[in-house]
Write a structure and sequence with these properties.
This protein is an alpha/beta fold and 333 residues long. It folds into two domains: 234 residues, Rossmann fold (3-Layer(aba) Sandwich), CATH 3.40.50; 71 residues, Lrp/AsnC effector binding domain/regulation of amino acid metabolism (RAM) domain (Alpha-Beta Plaits), CATH 3.30.70. It contains twelve helices and 14 strands. The longest helix has 16 residues.
Length: 333
């Protein structure tokens, strides 16, 4: 087997009293898409910044294709591309000039920089707007241009830090297609995301991150299998009776206690027996708790995250991810 593209060993990152990474360990195989799934503040962006050589870890070690991110940062930067939530492009330049500039910073000959710029602009459907100033671009176009600039150096490893946050569905789909193309071309992709559908669609392996460490890892199917055979979802008519409903349904749970969303009046629990839905109706009827909706579903990644952490992946939480990681191609020169 080939050596891992990314290795993290017991990384710890402290910001004063805040511990952003706390024993974070991960291996990413070459040519795969690995998704880091977790809420803001979980440590995803901090890990990306360590791999991108933008942060020196407090403790632990990380490598990219065998090169240490602390001891050999230039070698790492020559092998990575980075695109994040915010497009790091120059609004005063045209799209083409932005991409060509990054190529020149990679020390490509001028003719090669122009050729590669034309390739990535076409790949991301930006050729028609290539000679317009970026200040005229939409947000989605800027995000695609930022990704294109990251690709001009043909990185072996692509770091995508929540690249689709805030994008419209069409632009998100376009970026998803690009990620799939990168994988088919042999590029390793580390993708951080809060979107369950995104991780399920793109990643061959998913690592669930919470409080600065990996709490579970596997394929989407493997992670879903840890929850239970099926999920029973019940929404009660009176949200104030959610607690009573959860107590009534608790004996039916195949694993952990029911997960309660009191504001929505929703209770979810893993069940082993499909007939549990009928029993749930009987139990709630006995407690005189009116049901607004009841459904038996296959487990989702959201159920995995709720089971592991007690909160949803999309929940916004305070944490260390305060700084926007910028693209690091400039440092490769």
């Amino acid at each position: 087997m080939s050596a891992p593209a990314i290795v993290a060993e017991n990384l710890r990152q402290e910001f004063g009293d805040v511990v952003a990474l706390d024993g974070f360990s991960l291996e990413v195989e070459p040519g795969t898409v690995v998704g880091l799934l977790g809420p803001n503040g979980a440590g995803k962006t901090t890990f990306v910044r360590v791999v991108a050589t933008l942060l020196t870890p407090t403790a632990g070690r990380a490598t990219v294709h065998g090169f240490d991110v602390v001891q050999e940062p230039l070698a790492v930067r020559r092998r990575i591309g980075l695109a994040g939530q915010f497009a790091a492009v120059d609004e005063e330049l045209t799209g083409r000039e932005n991409v060509e500039m990054i190529g020149l910073l990679y020390r490509l000959p001028a003719a090669e920089a122009k050729r590669r710029a034309a390739e990535v602009l076409e790949r991301l459907s930006l050729t028609a707007a290539a000679d317009r100033r970026v200040s005229t671009y939409s947000g989605g176009m800027r995000r695609r241009l930022d990704l294109g600039a990251s690709l001009v150096g043909r990185p072996q490893v692509m770091l995508l830090d929540e690249p689709t946050t805030g994008l419209d569905p069409r632009t998100r789909q376009e970026l998803w297609n690009t990620v799939e193309e990168l994988r088919r071309d042999g590029t390793t992709v580390l993708l951080t995301t809060q979107y369950l559908e995104e991780a399920d669609r793109l990643a061959q392996r998913i690592a669930v991150v919470d409080h600065g460490r990996i709490v579970a890892e596997g394929t989407a199917a493997e992670l879903k299998a840890t929850v239970g055979t099926e999920m029973l979802s019940v929404r009660v008519a009176d949200a104030q009776r959610s607690g009573s409903a959860a107590a009534a349904l608790a004996p039916l749970a195949a694993g952990d206690e029911p997960i309660v969303d009191a504001a929505a009046g929703e209770i979810r629990l893993a069940v082993a027996d499909p007939s549990a839905s009928a029993e749930a109706v009987r139990r709630l009827d006995a407690e005189q708790i009116a049901i607004a909706a009841i459904e038996l579903q296959q487990p989702s990644l959201d159920d995995v995250f709720l089971t592991l952490t007690g909160r949803r992946a999309e929940d916004q939480t305070e944490g260390d991810e305060r700084a926007d990681p910028r693209r690091t191609q400039e440092a490769a020169a």
